[in-house]
Amino acid sequence: MSKRPTPSRLTASAHLTGDASTPATTVEEIAATAAQHAVLASTPEPTPAPVEEIIEAPAVAPVVAASSPAIPARTAPRLDVKAAAGLVAAANRGEIPMGQLTAALSDLTYTANADTYPDTWLGNLWQGVNYQRRFVPAIGAGAPVTSLKVTGWRWNTKPAVAAYDGDKEAVASNAATTEAVEVPVQRLAGAHDIDRAFFDLGSSDYVAGYWAALAESYAKLSDEYCAGLLIDEAQNAGTSGTAMGTIVKAAMAVMNEGTPTFIGIGTSVFESMAATNTQDALAFLGGSLSFDGTGSLGNVSLFVSSILDDYTVIAGVRQAATFHELAPALRVQVANVANGGIDAGLFGYCATVVHNPNALATCVLD
């Protein structure tokens, strides 16, 4: 017996029309051809089997024909699942030549059956890095807020000493003065009336995202409030023509009061630092500044902030001010039974107290 070539296997995406020489127009014709090939493949060579034996030989044709209705000539036949599977299996076994199967299966598209596939649930989508406060951690941490105002005092003119000759001469005595400091506590809050179904049915992703969004908003707004008071109280050190010159000038303005511990720069100052000569100066001072907006100049904390005016630099000593707040901010939720909701909100209280304005200075890049 000659060795029959192994046919390529088919998948259920094949369609049925006919071979290149004799088009098949009905399922019955294809089934009959399948039967002929099935018997020929199993008959010993070289003695050909009689035609009568081929007709009577068992094949898959009766199964296919029985389950497939007659199809008018030259129309695309439509097979049910059983008949289609039978034809594909027969072709894979070599009982139907590959040329006779091209496409008679009904299309099952994703679009037509999209409802059978669940959506890919991603939960709360990432929307950028959470805001990190810059000014609040740059100054001292004050006592927690326990009332609606913070009070204290500071020197206007500090007591000073002078040279003394002795011999019971008069000792120097300057006119030292003080002033009272009273800072109202800033209230920060946000609230919403939320459908209680989010809480009742365990929508933890939404509820957690809600509280996280309020907390981030509080962090940014409290930092803006702190920066505003520091800038208002700081001394004006003038202007400079270069980014590095602006930074150095602001830092030098506070050196009489103490060693600068932080320098905040506006976005345009940061951009100007891309100049080669400025980068050389930064390296000379042992400084660094990364794209996360933080860095250092020696032992001085350096950070970029969009809260500052674009061309402004502020330098300061940590002890120059303190930040007071009720921490953490209060999360409150109350049932709104009549409307089927939950009244939820976040409430914060904070105050920035400047102890020594001369230990803060601003400078502008011109």
SSE order and pairing:
Layout: E1 15-16, H1 27-42, H2 51-56, H3 61-67, H4 81-92, E2 101-102, H5 135-138, E3 140-141, E4 149-157, E5 177-184, E6 186-195, H6 197-200, H7 204-233, E7 235-240, H8 243-253, E8 262-265, H9 267-272, H10 276-284, E9 287-289, E10 294-297, E11 300-304, E12 312-316, E13 321-325, E14 330-336, E15 341-354, E16 360-365
Parallel strand pairs: 3-13, 7-16, 8-11
Antiparallel strand pairs: 1-2, 4-5, 6-15, 8-12, 9-10, 10-11, 12-16, 13-15, 14-15
Helix pairs in contact: 1-3, 3-4
Q: What descriptive keywords fit this protein?
A:
366 residues, alpha+beta, Major capsid protein gp5 fold, 2 domains, five-stranded mixed sheet, 10 helices, 29% helix, 25% strand, elongated
One letter per element, helices H and strands E, the order comes to: EHHHHEHEEEEHHEHEHHEEEEEEEE
Strand content: 25-35%
Gap from first CA to last CA: 97 Å
* Overall residue-averaged pLDDT value: 81
Please state the CA-atom Rg, rounded to the nearest Å: 43 Å
Q: Would you count the extended β strands for me? A: 16
Sheet having the most strands: 7 strands, mixed
Give the class from helix and strand content and strand pairing: alpha+beta
What is the CATH C-level name of the largest domain? Alpha Beta
Arrangement of strands in the largest sheet: 7-16-12-8-11-10-9
The residue ranges in which pLDDT falls below 50 over 5 or more consecutive positions are: 1-25, 49-69
What is the CATH third-level topology name of the largest domain?
Major capsid protein gp5 fold
Helix content: 25-40%
CATH hierarchy: architecture of the largest domain: 2-Layer Sandwich
**Can you tell me the number of structural domains?**
2
CATH superfamily of the largest domain: Major capsid protein gp5
